Amino acid sequence: MKIIVCIKQVPAGEVKINPETGTLIREGVQSILNPFCEYALDEAIRIKKEQEERGGEEVEVIVLTMGPPQARSALLRCLELGADRAILLCDRKFAGADTLATSLALSEAIQKFEEDFTLIFTGKQAIDGDTAQVGPELAEHLGIPQITYVTSTNLIPERRRIQVERETENGYEIVECKLPALVSVSSGSNILRIPSFKEIINARRKVIKNVIADDLSKDTSRFGLSGSPTQVAKIFPPKSRTGGQKIESDDPEAAVSRLIEFLQENVFVDKE
Amino acid sequence: MLQIDLEACNGCKLCEKTCPFAAIVVVNKKAKVLENCTLCGACVNVCPQHALNIERPAQLSPEELTKYSGVCIFAECEIKNEPQIKPVALQILEKGRILADKLEEDLSTILLGAKNSQLTQTLISHGADKVYLCQHPLLEQYSTEGFTNIIAGVIMQEKFSIILFGATPTGRDLAPRIAARLKVGLTADCTGLDINEDRQLVQTRPAFGGNIMASILSPYTRPQLATVRPNVFPKGTPNPERTGTIKEIPVKLNPKGIRTKIIDSAITQKEETIPIEEADILISAGRGIQTKENLELIKELAEELNGTMSCSRSLVDLGWLPHSFQVGQSGKTVSPKLYIALGISGAIQHLVGMSSSDIIIAINKDPDAPIFKVADFGIVGDILEIVPILIKQLRELKKN
Ligand SMILES: Cc1cc2nc3c(=O)[nH]c(=O)nc-3n(C[C@H](O)[C@H](O)[C@H](O)COP(=O)(O)OP(=O)(O)OC[C@H]3O[C@@H](n4cnc5c(N)ncnc54)[C@H](O)[C@@H]3O)c2cc1C
Ligand SMILES: Nc1ncnc2c1ncn2[C@@H]1O[C@H](COP(=O)(O)O)[C@@H](O)[C@H]1O
Q1: B58: Cβ–Cβ under 8 A, 6 or more apart, which residues?
Q2: A67 lines ligand 2 (CB under 6 A)
Q3: Which of the residues A151, A154, B209, B286 has the least number of beta carbons within 10 Å of its own beta carbon?
């Protein structure tokens, strides 16, 4: 059984904007594996171990990303954390892709190389763009059902179903779905795992397959910038609020009295 | 046009069963498209032979672009005792009205459900010129596939120029599915919408956790799709006198076309509280409260001020409060009349979720905490000391 995990490398910490040129300041910003993708990978590996323990079908975990050459390091981290092999879609022709062009390239790679997959995991969103669109768009291109915002999964291979718990606006619900399916993962543990020496060595022996646009299709205009309907017209810093009065005093009673006056002025508290 | 590869088609009838509009039939073991095909694409997805295909031009010529007109809004509903329109849908309806007036075009809305046709007047009073009403027992509960099939069908038929969805969990599950089916762009979680001199939709949204704003266009494809963040646009005052047209769309859905099933949806919060995104007054706690027990103090203050409790992500990560209480980038966007931040540092991911509040008050013992940069009123001090005094003084005031 093949489980594909789509992962993305994202900038760690804050990306700022150069107010003069209006471009992103990327220098000195480190890259990390998107946390929600890491949760997705953890879930895939948990299923792999679970199947091993119950003597079920063997599970192969394949990580897939589309990104620049340095995205290789994010794949390597996934291999250290337990993925079996990796695919890197890397080509100038993929660059500048919006979510539609990204999901299209991912879907064509999956159809070409791993069509017999059982499950696809994505993160619920990537923390750089925060769109949460690539997962559902990928599911649509592949014609498979999707379940988003998933917090835990239970694979039922004998019934070719998966049961999941997912977040809703006011709580949780349990959803069952036919396989193959796509699941976007929204939570996991925040523990930054450090792979063991052996895992690091092992990962170096695992395969990272390189794929270029021409490997996927003759019509490469559907990928990257040329295949992206949306265009960023302008980027600018957000309007910022300016702080108002700030009380630093040793007398908390007096400070609170001033706060109550402020609340009264704004009619949140009645005056006597 | 829906193309059928007759060589590949084996007459399995899956397309016939799946088509929500009964627009494809199998005759002599081959699929055949009827006049009423809406190009919704539902059949393309299910065909095991990959025999069906819809060619959609990636880029439209200027003449083709002008064939698309009108603004359309997805009228998301919720059930609170009885079905009602979600506040975000009314907010984008008001915004949609402004955009439609600028374009001098119609404002439409799509309403799906099992028995909620009574809601059409609400939509019309809030500015809709046309309501596309789709009623079917299988539409009572949201499902990605059921809703996508129906909405994609209406969109293909009517050729709207702009379509807006609320950026709710449902909207964000549904809109990308529709965008991928139509092979068009989609801008997520917009906080600004406008029409430019070329009559294009200018979609503004925060990126990189709120550090940067981006304005996005889809110049060469139609329709232009966006999800809109709840509570950034006000909803308008309804005018019950307004009139509009209601167009009923015949729907035929097969349960087999919906591959997900809700087994249990009862696991909601036990306590009957106002959802934080609807509260006028939020008393929000952060890591500074130090222990779970101190949440009682926050609750007490919330009661005194008739407010609702919310929190930063730290408290959710600690398991002290459920995710539905979380304000911020990976939680909810709120814009109450009053937001009181207690022991919250004001990380950018938190600020993007609350900085459109009317009035912000912060109490934090660190004078340099970034929350003070957005607060209209701040006290530098220990919340465990200040909050009890505040509760005491508020009670004294009430006694007098
Ligand atoms: C992808 C991503 C998404 C995120 N999404 C969100 C989100 O949606 N919402 C969110 O809130 N965060 C989010 N975060 C986390 C965010 O970056 C911060 O870590 C978080 O908001 C910090 O919460 P806090 O202010 O409660 O805790 P801290 O940053 O630990 O701040 C505690 C504050 O309390 C003050 N304090 C301590 N003790 C006292 C006392 N006795 N009296 C008064 N003040 C006291 C301290 O001075 C400090 O300022 C996200 C992070 C990432 C990476
Ligand atoms: N370039 C990419 N390569 C592989 N997976 C991606 C890529 N971009 C997004 N994804 C997947 O889609 C999820 C949602 O991303 P986004 O839609 O960008 O918020 C991520 O968590 C990844 O699992």
Answers
A1: A221, A222, A227, A229, B183, B220, B221
A2: yes
A3: A154
- State residue B383 phi and psi, 5-degree precision: -60, -30
Q: Where are the domains of chain B?
A: 2-54, 62-257, 276-399
Q: What is the pLDDT of residues A32-50, one digit of tens each?
A: 899 899 999 999 999 999 9
Q: Which of A127, A259, A266 to mutate to test the interface with B (most CBs of B within 10 A)?
A: A259
Boundaries of domain holding A254: 241-272
The answer to which of A90-104, B45-59, B321-335 has the lowest mean pLDDT is B45-59
Q: Which residues of B touch A34 (CB under 8 A)?
A: none
Q: For residue A220, give the amino acid letter.
A: T
How many angstroms does the Cα of residue B393 sit away from the middle of ligand 1?
A: 28
The residue whose CB lies within 8 Å of the most ligand 1 atoms, and thus the one to mutate among B189, B284, B310, B345, is B345
Q: Is residue A236 part of a domain?
A: no
A259 and A200 in a single domain? The answer is no
Task: Answer yes or no: same fold for B2-54 and B62-257.
Answer: no
Percentage of residues of chain A with pLDDT beyond 90: 68
Q: Cis check for the bond before B176: say yes or no (omega within 30 of 0).
A: no
Judgement on whether residues A159 and A216 belong to the same structural domain of the protein? yes
Domain count within chain A: 2
Tens-digit pLDDT profile for residues B206-229: 877 677 788 999 999 999 999 998
Per DSSP, helices labelled H in B86-168 are: 87-103, 120-125, 144-158
Residue of A nearest to B321 (CA): A171
- Tokens read off for B322: 């459920």
Question: What value does the mean pLDDT take over residues A207-227?
Answer: 94
A163 within a domain of the structure (yes/no): yes
* Residues of chain A contacting residue B367, judged by C-beta atoms under 8 Å apart: 246, 248
Give the count of alpha carbons within 13 A of B82, CB side only: 5
Say if CB A150 and CB A159 are below 8 A apart: no
Are A247 and A139 within one domain? Answer: no
Q: Which residues of A touch B207 (CB under 8 A)?
A: 128-130, 235
For residues A170 and A246, membership in a common domain is answered with no
pTM here is 0.82
CATH number belonging to domain B62-257: 3.40.50.620
**Gap between the Cα atoms of B223 and A237, Å rounded:** 28
A96 found inside a domain: yes
Same domain, yes or no: A162 and A268: no
Strand partners, A42: none
Q: Left if phi > 0, otherwise alpha if psi is -120 to 50, otherwise beta: which for A22? A: left
Ligand 2, closest atom to CA A36? 21
- Domain B276-399 belongs to what topology? Rossmann fold (3.40.50)
Given a contact cutoff of 8 angstroms between Cβ atoms, the answer to whether A102 and A91 are in contact is no
pLDDT digits (tens, 9 = 90+) for B227-275: 998 878 888 899 999 999 999 999 989 898 899 999 988 665 544 567 8
Q: A16 and B144 in contact by Cβ < 8 A? A: no
Whether residue B188 and residue A129 make contact (CB cut-off 8 A), yes or no, is yes
- Domain range B2-54, CATH class: alpha beta
